[in-house]
Specification:
Layout (H helix, E strand, L loop, with lengths): L1 H22 L1 E5 L5 E5 L3 H5 L9 E4 L5 E4 L4 H5 L8 E6 L3 E6 L3 H5 L7 H18 L3 H14 L6 H21 L3 E11 L2 E10 L5 E11 L15 E6 L9 E7 L8 E12 L4 E3 L1
Antiparallel strand pairs: 1-2, 3-4, 5-6, 7-8, 8-11, 9-10, 9-12, 12-13
Helix pairs in contact: 5-6, 6-7
């Protein structure tokens, strides 16, 4: 009888000890499906060697990364941009982006989104160029192209090559329209110590470097009336610029003192009459 009582007491103690142990232990999970029961005080240490406090779940970022997280931390990761299914980043003009499930990529492509930033940027730029050409703003079109080339820095990028070809088309169209190798972009008149000065911004739209130019324009006053040379000559002014280093598509500003045209407020009818190229050839209107 005494032995039976002793065994019973030992069994009760074992059960109580077991309950205490399990009450202060935690089941942890591995990435390959294993389970491990550890003391609560060891949980953090086990986390550092790849164990989780809940069955782990694979999560995905919009840029293609993957991360295995504890199942009880899913919401925390969702709040900082992780997802429960493979995701892809889609792009639209004007730097818009959106993360979508990979299986929905084609649906977004069908409504105007793109799978790369470069493709979205290209489709942002082309309509701008087309609009500039539609209003014969050739200078604006080239400026748009220049800005695009700075963004498409990779010379092997197919979009970079297409924009370069677009520049050539715009330049050729511009040159054929104005029928001269240099285009006048803008002009204005200033007063320098009582001497009127004509300021003209020029752009080289030829394929060669320019070393000198001759041009002509007409002077007008505030009432839009021709200003004649010392009051009785012609309103036409002939200008000359030399020792230039004027590369293809470069923009330069030049000014001429309008002696004898003191009432000039604006200039019109700017025409390039001769151009000397760095290779020794000369273009004449």
């Amino acid at each position: 009888m005494k032995k039976r009582l002793l065994y019973l007491l030992l069994a009760i103690c074992f059960v109580l000890q077991t309950q205490v142990v399990f009450a202060s232990s935690v089941t942890m999970y591995s990435a390959d499906g294993r389970e491990l029961i550890v003391a609560e005080s060891e949980v953090e240490a086990q986390k550092t060697v790849g164990w989780f406090t809940a069955p782990p779940v694979l999560m995905y970022s919009a840029d293609g990364r993957q991360l295995l997280v504890s199942g009880d931390e899913i919401e925390l990761y969702q709040n900082v941009g992780w997802y429960l299914e493979p995701m892809s980043t889609m792009y639209a003009p004007f730097d818009r982006t959106i993360a979508v499930p990979t299986w929905q990529v084609q649906d977004y492509v069908n409504v105007g989104w793109f799978t790369t930033h470069d493709e979205a940027l290209y489709n942002e730029i082309i309509p701008q160029i087309q609009y500039a050409l539609s209003v014969t703003d050739y200078n604006g079109a080239i400026d748009i192209c220049d800005d695009a080339l700075d963004k498409f820095w990779d010379y092997e990028n197919v979009f970079f090559e297409d924009i370069v070809n677009t520049v050539y088309v715009v330049m050729d169209t511009w040159r054929a329209t104005v029928k001269q190798p240099v285009a006048a972009i803008s002009s204005y008149v200033t007063d320098s110590y009582g001497i009127k000065q004509a300021n003209i911004v020029l752009r080289n739209i030829s394929y060669k470097e320019i070393s000198a130019i001759e041009l002509e324009f007409n002077c007008y006053n505030t009432f839009n009336e021709p200003v004649k040379y010392y009051g009785f000559g012609s309103s036409q002014f002939d200008g000359y610029a030399q020792q230039m280093s004027f590369g293809t598509l470069d923009t330069q500003s030049w000014h001429w003192s309008l002696y004898g045209y003191s009432e000039t407020d604006r200039i019109k009818n700017i025409k390039i009459t001769r151009v000397a190229f760095a290779d020794g050839t000369v273009w004449t209107r």
